[in-house]
Design a protein that fits this description.
The chain is an all-alpha fold. It contains five helices and no strands. Helix 1 packs across helix 4.
């Protein structure tokens, strides 16, 4: 009964990690931002984001090295990730 919801949360958590990796985010810098509050907020935003489909499409294009992928400026956490680049 709850399995689809668990799967959805797992996929979104994975997508957050994939986005951070694709953007070259320094995880330690992100965790230190606002004493961990910034990461916690980014995680929550990702779990409830209405733009999950856009995120998935951008990640797929990025993985294919599509030059038209551009930057994921649609992402609510994009600016935070940019500040925490490795």
């Amino acid at each position: 009964m709850f399995r689809p919801m668990v799967r959805q949360v797992e996929l979104r958590a994975r997508r957050l990690q994939d986005m951070m990796k694709a953007l070259g985010v320094n995880e330690l810098a992100l965790v230190r931002e606002d004493n961990g509050e910034a990461y916690s907020k980014a995680r929550d935003v990702c779990l409830h984001c209405a733009l999950a489909t856009d995120c998935l499409h951008w990640l797929e294009a990025h993985d294919r090295a599509d030059p038209n992928a551009g930057q994921p400026e649609f992402c609510p956490s994009f600016k935070l990730f940019e500040r925490c680049k490795a």
